[in-house]
Amino acid sequence: MWFKSVFLKSLRDYRVAILGWGIGMGLVIISPMASVSELVKTPEARAALLNLAASFTWNADVIRADTIGGYATFKIGIFVFLMVVWPILAGSRMLRGEEDRASLDVLLSAPRGRVRVAVEKLAAMSAALLAMAVLIGLLAYLGGLAFKADFNLADAVLFGLNLALICAVFGAIALFVSQFTHERGPAAGWTAGLLLIFIVVDMVHRVIPNTDWISRLSPIYYYNLSKPLIVGYGANLGAMLFLVALTIPRVLRLPQRVAAPRALPINDWSLRSIYARNLGVMAVPTFWWALLVAGWAGWMVVIVKQIEAKLSVVYAGSPALQDILKNLSGGNADFNASFLGAMFGILPIFLMAFAITQVNRWASDEGDGRLDLVLAAPRSRTRVLLGRFAALTTAVTVIGLAALAATLVASSVSGVALNTANVVAATLTLVPMGVLVAAIGFLAAGWLRTAADTGLVSFLLAAWFFISFVGPELKVPEATLRLSAFYYYGTPLLHGVQLANLAILLAVGAVALALGVLRFARKDIAV
After folding, report:
1. Closest C-alpha among 103, 92, 147, 67 to residue 369
2. Could you tell me if residue 39 is inside a domain?
3. Is residue 65 a part of any domain in this protein?
4. Tens digits of per-residue pLDDT, 269-288?
5. Domain end position, chosen among 205, 222, 254
6. What average pLDDT does this structure show over 182-211?
7. pLDDT at 465 over 90
8. Could you write out the DSSP letters of every residue in 32-80?
9. Are 506 and 464 members of one domain?
């Protein structure tokens, strides 16, 4: 059945992603619902929660944050866009990836047109996103029933559908961009960069007055117009239809393009070693992710200066808000320090997401047979894997240095006083976090195929996020908090590097890498 058409075969290939991302994001939506009843037990607690939500208006419009649906929407914020990583990867490899591994040649040798192949593949990705939307909606509805929310099944499904639509927009952009690149990596990197730009553009009107016209240039703006989990606010059907229009297939260039592999340059610097070649391949994605992380770090410094005057008063008069920010930032009593400490605690997520994309590339290179020619030469498998890992470590370090430079520049320009040594610690400690995820991903790739490997590491990241950012509100035991890598990152912007925690991160990463090397050296890569 599944091999009767390009559409069904492509949809079958997405089965792991559908379950992994659908269930994973559904659980992420449910997780904040559990703490709402505790946060609104008394009028004082409810007022403190509303004050806290008001301090994050730069992130998204806050509507009825003292309800289950409103709090879940507020709590997740921009982190819901982690799901966009999957359609970006899927869209970039949909055609360009198949051309890279020559599997598209087989499809095009049959009596079917290129546009038909592209449309069927895009339809399969759309169907996969729709299935994820249904799973997310069902889980959100079940969570609402469990915690006595006031939204219904239709609202929950509309929430999932709205998320699927913004994912489809970036999947279509990645597909379109891939028609102008020689490899799928640059297409994914450029699209991820556009995602960052659009997120920041959407934030502008909430920070700078009278700039709504700027934010309307971002698809994220239209996603945020719909809040289906908030009864009385609901979904904006016009905005959702506009997102549908943005997902129209952009494959007009495909019929004219010759699907031929690009010849490698003879004297290119990247061909001098395995490390250099991998570094060259990662260059464009590294640039875009460095822009993303540096943009977030710099933007947070600018944001805190913009909202300081208004929110410092709220902060001083709200003990509950002080307690929440102190928990996130490690106990500092100063508003600026607390806010920035909490926001910098989020930076590792971006480095980890970048590492996941590179784990995906490693697993797909092995599965697509790209390593066969490399391993046919007289070089050990250990050298091949360590060369890739060293290049990834270099890329992560470059991203960390970009975040450091952006933070220092933004601090100098905006007049926010920061401890330079702690800024260095906060940005460079990001490197072990990204390397840890990469090592675990390389280890898992020894047994799992590309989709399963990427899904497992993504699920692990989501679990760590839940433990560290939602767990304290649920009063989970200290032993459980220690299971998350974010626990060991700590709050270096405020307290510097904790050497014992850093040593644990490095030790776990080293063990995972050693086991990954051992497995790769002994496995049959044809399996």
Report:
1. 103
2. no
3. no
4. 666 788 888 888 888 888 88
5. 254
6. 81
7. no
8. GGGGHHHHTSSHHHHHHHHHHHHTTTTTS----TTSHHHHHHHHHGGGG
9. yes
Residue 71 lies in a domain: no
Sign of the torsion angle spanned by Cα atoms 351, 354, 360, 365: negative
Q: What residues contact residue 341 under an 8 Å CB cut-off, 6+ apart? A: 328, 329, 330, 332, 491, 493, 494
Q: How far is 62 from 80, CA to CA, in rounded Å?
A: 15
Based on the domain organization, do 250 and 305 belong to the same domain?
A: no
Q: Which of 254, 284, 314 delimits the end of a domain?
A: 254
236 with 343, same domain: the answer is no
Q: Among 17, 123, 35, 112, which residue's Cα sits nearest to residue 476?
A: 35
For residue 115, the model assigns a pLDDT of 73
Q: Which domain holds residue 466?
A: 271-527
Same domain, yes or no: 406 and 286: yes
Phi, psi for residue 65 in degrees, rounded to 5: -70, -10
CA atoms 256, 260, 266, 271: torsion sign: positive
Q: pLDDT (tens digit, 9 = 90+) per residue, 108-124?
A: 666 666 777 778 888 89
The whole-angstrom separation of Cα 422 and Cα 413 is 18
The total number of structural domains in the chain stands at: 2
Residue 415 neighbours by CB distance under 10 Å: 8
- Model pTM score: 0.74
Does residue 279 sit in the same domain as residue 233? no
Contacts of 92 (CB under 8 A, 6+ apart): 174, 175, 177, 178, 184, 185, 187, 188, 191
Q: Alpha carbon 85 to chain centroid distance?
A: 5
Look at residue 320 and tell me whether its pLDDT is greater than 60: no
Number of Cβ within 10 Å of residue 24's Cβ equals: 22
Residue 424 has pLDDT above 80, yes or no: yes
Q: Give residue 333's pLDDT band: very low, low, confident or very high (50, 70, 90).
A: very low
Q: Does residue 219 share a domain with residue 276?
A: no
Same domain, yes or no: 182 and 323: no
- pLDDT bucket at 23, cuts 50 / 70 / 90: confident
**In terms of domains, do 411 and 323 share one?**
yes
Torsion angle in degrees (nearest 10) through CA of 166, 171, 174, 179 = -130
Which residues lie across from 227 on neighbouring strands?
A: 234
- At residue 465, what is the residue type? F
Q: What is the DSSP string of 141-180?
A: HHHHHHTT-S--HHHHHHHHHHHHHHHHHHHHHHHHHHTT
The mean pLDDT of the chain is: 81
Q: Is residue 361 part of a domain?
A: yes
pLDDT of 472 above 50 = yes
DSSP code per residue over 339-399: HHHHHHTTHHHHHHHHHHHHHHHHHHHHHTTTHHHHHHSS--HHHHHHHHHHHHHHHHHHH
Q: What Cα–Cα distance (Å) separates residue 305 from each residue in 67, 205, 339, 415, 423? A: 29, 16, 11, 8, 17
Q: Give tens-digit pLDDT for 344-368.
A: 777 888 888 889 888 888 887 777 6
